[in-house]
Design a protein that fits this description.
The protein is an alpha+beta fold. It contains 13 helices and 34 strands. β32 and β33 form a beta hairpin. The radius of gyration is 34 Å and the shape is extended.
């Protein structure tokens, strides 16, 4: 007897589990049962699990009977002519979707060559084991799965031509690569998903070598002239939005240049770009703190008594200005109205981003790295045929990660560039590496991809042969300009009086326990006094009872609320510590400070 569970709930028992499972599958393939139901027989616990819930990852496989796939040449020709569709094949039971559990009971053949009578299914294509991004990686079957996962993840972060109507859109935080290219080494998926309509990288000449130690730890070195010719350039777009909201009592916001009597008026300099209607003009060059849309709002918490009070009735400043660290050029101004019919102003800011030291680049194989140095073209190494690489990649990133696909793409890209054709690098169905080597040899280069390279500074020939080829590199959205952050003084939190957190709030960089240890190890422990007094405060302490006393500003003297006028000493403590003592008091704990002289 086997227990049967439907979506984890016990529904009954069956005498012959294997017969039941087979009958279930055949009924599903006939269309008598929902194709969304999956069945799994666990022979160890003698349970049958039927799953039909939402959100399960399921994948299509071709059904095999007696070692012969049910998908025939006739089906394929009918599909090509458009006589039948994908859903028709599923209804016929030729293809079925399996979830992770049912896959445990299946024996899936990888290719038609290895089909035997005991196989239950065959892959439509081995490529279907990947998601969209991972299937775009060429020669992926030559690298570990972990690297391919990283490569797929990196492609999602790449800058490219994300949509063709970007000029009329108001998207938040978007980047646009100026001269995107399609890759030379491609997979079948590139054609399926119309890669030429939204490419996301550029083909670069890459040399695999160390250079002055500036490409240690995955860093890369870039040719300065390549950047000057437009390599890796992108634009960053960000909208600012303001709308005239309506409040109770007929009060409204007003988009205009604020008057000087408005509460919170900034300065004339901040409003210098605004036109008469209170909105900035196109192509204005703006920096942090500059007002983009001028706006005033009615006073907060206006009661009926305050209506006659002039001081309370002044409007307050609520303009939209550029945040800390932002700069750019006004790209587009849109004045329209929202669903309620109120005025809505949207202003898009554009900022050109030229690759700099610290910007992140990656190949499609998870070999990500930041720019370690930008070298003038005159100092870059050059090959015997006069080719100067755009990018120098460190050889130390390959042995431990085993990204052989990265190395094959270099040869593939080289063959593609010389032969003037695209190379097919589809996973498990790619052009063999041997063929690429033979073609490279016939084109007048060494078959193993290495070349004689000369030192750009001395002109001497390098003793080692250097691996050079073409590769599709992607610029990622992680740029120094978005992350650069430092502060000396600035805003503090109300409760703890410590610096605010985060770059957007002009916050401080936190120095923790471990960072403290590095200072001590460097013999700079006196620096800690300076670093750890961001919330330094001086409090009067009663020497008799040890509680924090009170300072009376009018009388200019301190006294203890418990003991009265006794010996009171000013002590320097962290405000966070003083706050903790106050919180102890609220728990009825007596935090008494025992004071001692330093000397």
């Amino acid at each position: 007897m086997s227990e049967v569970y439907l979506n984890g709930k016990f529904v009954g028992e069956v005498d012959e589990p294997l017969v039941f499972v087979e009958q279930f599958k055949s009924e599903r393939r006939k269309g008598n049962l929902s194709e969304n139901a999956n069945i799994f027989y666990n022979d160890r616990s003698n349970d049958i699990m039927v799953e039909s819930g939402k959100g399960r990852a399921r994948r299509p496989l071709i059904v095999v009977k007696d070692g012969i796939p049910l998908l025939t040449e006739k089906h394929i020709s009918q599909l090509e002519k458009g006589e039948i569709s994908w859903s028709d094949i599923i209804q016929q039971g030729v293809i079925e979707f399996l979830d992770a559990a049912e896959e445990e009971n299946a024996l899936i053949a990888f290719t038609e060559k290895e089909l035997r009578s005991e196989h239950t299914h065959i892959e439509i294509s081995p490529l279907t084991m990947f998601g969209l991004a991972t299937s775009l990686i060429p020669y992926a079957n030559h690298s570990p799965a972990a690297r391919m996962n990283i490569g797929g993840k990196n492609q999602k972060q790449a800058l490219g031509f994300y949509v063709s109507n970007f000029l009329t859109r108001m998207d938040m935080d978007v980047n646009l690569l100026h001269t995107p290219q399609v890759p030379l080494v491609r997979t079948t998926m590139h054609d399926i998903y119309s890669d030429e309509k939204h490419p996301a990288g550029q083909n670069m000449v890459v040399a695999v070598m160390s250079y002055e130690g500036y490409n240690m730890e995955d860093a890369i070195i870039i040719n300065k002239s390549s950047i000057e010719r437009g390599m890796g350039r992108s634009s960053y777009y960000r909208p600012s939005i303001a709308e005239e909201l309506r409040y109770s009592g007929g009060l409204v916001d007003e988009i205009s240049i604020p008057d000087k009597d408005v509460k919170g008026y900034k300065s004339e300099h901040d409003y210098r770009h605004l036109e008469k209607d209170g909105v900035i003009y196109s192509e204005a060059v703006v920096g942090e703190g500059d007002v983009v849309i001028g706006k005033t709002s009615p006073p907060r918490f206006l009661s009926s008594l305050d209506e006659y009070n002039l001081a309370a009735a002044t409007r307050r400043e609520s303009s939209v200005s550029l945040a800390h660290g932002e700069k750019g050029v006004i790209d587009f101004v849109l004045i329209t109205e929202n669903e309620e019919g109120n005025k809505l102003v949207q202003v898009r800011i554009r900022d050109q981003r030229i690759p700099e030291v610290g910007d992140k680049f990656t190949s499609r194989h998870g070999q990500k790295g930041v720019v370690g140095l930008i070298v003038p073209e005159t100092d870059m190494p050059f090959t015997a045929s006069g080719i100067i690489p755009d990018l120098i990649f460190s050889p130390h990133g390959v042995p431990s990660r085993m990204t052989i696909s990265h190395m094959i793409e270099l040869i593939g890209g080289k063959v593609s560039g010389l032969a003037g054709r695209y190379i097919d690098g589809t996973t498990f169905h790619s052009e063999p590496e041997e063929d690429l080597r033979k073609e490279l040899l016939s084109l007048g280069f060494r078959e193993n991809g290495v070349e004689t390279v000369y030192n750009g500074q001395t002109g001497e020939q390098y003793k080692a042969k250097i691996y050079v080829g073409n590769m599709y590199y992607l610029k990622l959205k992680h740029m120094v300009a978005n992350k650069l952050h430092a502060r000396a003084r600035g805003p503090i939190q109300l409760l703890t009086r410590q610096p605010t957190e985060g770059r957007a709030k002009e916050g401080g960089l936190r120095l923790g326990e471990m960072e403290k240890d590095t200072f001590v190890a460097h013999g700079a422990s006196l620096l800690l006094k300076e670093r750890f007094d961001s919330d330094r405060t001086i409090v009067p302490v009663c020497e008799k009872c040890g509680l924090i006393a009170i300072y009376d500003e009018h009388k200019n003297k301190s006294y203890c609320p418990i003991c009265g006028d006794v010996e009171i000493t000013n002590v320097e403590v962290s405000y966070a510590f003083k706050l903790m003592l106050d919180e102890f008091k609220s728990l009825c704990v007596y935090p008494s400070l025992k004071l001692k002289n330093k000397y």
